[in-house]
Amino acid sequence: MAAVVTENDVTENVVENGEDDDVEVIDEGDTKDPAKKKKKKKKKKKAEGETAKESPTEVTATTEKLEALSLGENAGEGDEKKKKKKNKSKSGKGSSKEQTVPPTIPVAELFPDGNFPEGQIMDHGPAEGIDERTAKNRFTSEEKRALDRLHKDIYQEIRHAAEAHRQTRKHIRNWIKPGMTMIDICEELEKTARRLIGEDGLKAGLAFPTGCSRNHCAAHYTPNTGDTTVLEYDDVVKIDFGTHINGRIIDCAFTLHFNPRYDPLVKGVQEATEAGIKASGVDVRLCDVGAAVQEVMESHEVELDGQMYQVKPIRNLNGHSIEPYKIHAGKTVPIVKGGETTRMEENEIYAIETFGSTGRGQVHDDMDCSHYMKNFDQQFVPLRLQSSKQLLNVINKNFGTLAFCKRWLERAGASRYAMALKDLCDKGVVDAYPPLCDIKGCYTAQFEHTILLRPTCKEVVSRGDDY
Questions:
Q1: How many CB atoms lie within 10 A of CB 166?
Q2: Which of 105, 157, 249, 431 could staple 245 via S-S, CB 3.0–4.6 A?
Q3: Does the annotation mark 353 as catalytic?
Q4: What is the predicted pLDDT for the residue at 191?
Q5: Catalytic residue flag (residue 320)
Q6: Weakest-pLDDT range from 89-93, 127-131, 224-228, 418-422
Q7: Residue ranges of the domains in the chain?
Q8: C-alpha–C-alpha distance, residues 105 and 107, integer Å
Q9: Which of the following is catalytic: 148, 235, 251, 423?
Q10: Which residues are annotated as a binding site for substrate?
Q11: Where are the beta strands (DSSP E) in 368-424?
Q12: CATH 1.10.10.10 fits 370-433, yes or no
C-alpha cells in the first residue's frame, strides 16, 4: 500500500536566496571612488551568480519541499496515480508474486485481480464462400467487440486453466528424464497441476487423466497401479493432459523425445497442428481444416534404420469441440481431407490435435484399459448391485462427466471396484476408452492446442513459449 504524504510531514523551511560570505561590504563613502564603485558592482554580480548556481542538493531539496507544500490539493491525484501503477503491475502478464521453482504457488495467487494472460490472437481462417475482408473486419466491429465483453468472465476462466497448464508443462518438460517410471511421471505432473489450478472438487482441477502414450501407442494410455513401465531414451512419448475451471477445459498435448533421429517426425506433426490452427475460424468448414493438416503432414519424411517413412496422419483420430464438463462436445475436426462440411461458429471452443505415424496411419484398441468417462447423455439406469451404486456415487462426486482413470478412483477412496466398474460399463452408464495403437514397431507423435473462436478474433488460449 502506497504511503500518503501530508502537510504535517513538511517540517523544514524553504531555502532562501542570499549573498555569498565572500562579498565585500563597501562603505557609502567609498562609492565616491570610481574604482571602488566598479569593484562593488563586480562583487554584487558575482554574488547574484553564485546564488543562481545553487548546489544540486539544495535545488533538489527546494523542489521537493515546494512540491510537498502543494501536496494538500494534489495528494488525491498523486495517490491515485500510485494506485493505478500498482494495479497495472498485477494485471496482464505481471503479478504481485513470482512463481517458485518447481512451481508451488496457485495461479490465482499470481494474478489476484483475476486478469489472466491472453493466448495468441489470430485472424479467423479464410472460410469457403466468405469474403476474407469480413473476417478481418471483426477486429474493429463495435458489435463484435461488445459480444466479446459479454463473455469476459468465461474467457478469464479459460485463461486461468490455460495458465495452470502452461506452468505445469514447463516444469514437466524440464523434469522428465529417461529412466523414470511412467507412473512417477504422471503423479508428478498431476500433483503439480492440482496445486497450480487450486483443485476444488468439480469447480477446479484436472479435466482428464494424464496420457503418456509411447511409440506405437498414440493415445489414451496412463499407467494403472502396479505398472512398472520405464521411459527409455529411444521412446517417443505423447504427454496429453487437461485442466479446467468450472468445467471450462483446456486440452493440450505435446510430444517428447530424446533421440534426435525422431526430429523430422515430431516437426512434421507440429507443423501440421499449426496449419490446422491457422485454417480454423468462424464459418470455416471442418473438412477444410482436415485438408490443410493432411497436406502439411504428408510433406514430411523421416529416416529410421536406413528406411524412409512418410509421416501419415492417423485418419481415425481427430480434434473436437469442447463444452463445459464435456471434452467431446459433438463436432469433430478431421486431420485428413473429406469429412463433415459443418462450419465452426462464434464462441465455440475446439481442441485442434493432430497425430502422425510411421505405420499404417490407423489405430485400434489395445492393451489394458485405464481411461473411463461417465456417459454425458445417459438417462437414469436402475442398478441392482450395491457396489455399482456406491462406485457411481464416487464418480458423480469426484468427476461428474469428466474423464477419470483407475488410479484416480483409488485416490478417491474406492477399493475392490473392478466388478462394479464393469457393471457400469456394461449398462452404458460409463464408457471405457482403451489405449489406441498403430502397428507395433512404428512411432507416433501428437501436438494439440485449445482455441477459442471469439467474435472478434481467434485466440489460441493454450499457446506458450514452448509450442
A1: 23
A2: 157
A3: yes
A4: 98
A5: yes
A6: 89-93
A7: 123-361+442-460, 370-433
A8: 6
A9: 251
A10: 220, 328
A11: 371-374, 404-405
A12: yes
Cell of 277: 490452427
Identical fold between 123-361+442-460 and 370-433: no
Look up 300 and say whether it is catalytic: no
Largest CA distance in the chain: 128
Of 165, 320, 371, 449, which residue is the catalytic one? 320
Query: Element (H or E) spanning 410, and its range?
Result: helix 406-411
Question: 116: buried, middle or exposed (CB in 10 Å: 19+, 13-18, 0-12)?
Answer: buried
251 part of the active site: yes
Strand residues in 86-235 grouped as ranges (E): 120-122, 204-214, 217-219
**Cβ proximity of 228 and 220 under 8 Å:** no
For domain 123-361+442-460, give its CATH number from 3.90.230.10, 2.40.30.20, 1.20.140.10, 3.40.50.2300. Answer: 3.90.230.10
Q: What percent of the chain has pLDDT over 90?
A: 73
**If you count them, how many residues does the chain have?**
467
pLDDT value, residue 141 = 85
Residue 335: pLDDT over 80 = yes
Give the pLDDT confidence score for residue 462 in this predicted structure. 98
What average pLDDT does the segment 199-219 reach?
98
Q: Is 448 a catalytic residue?
A: yes
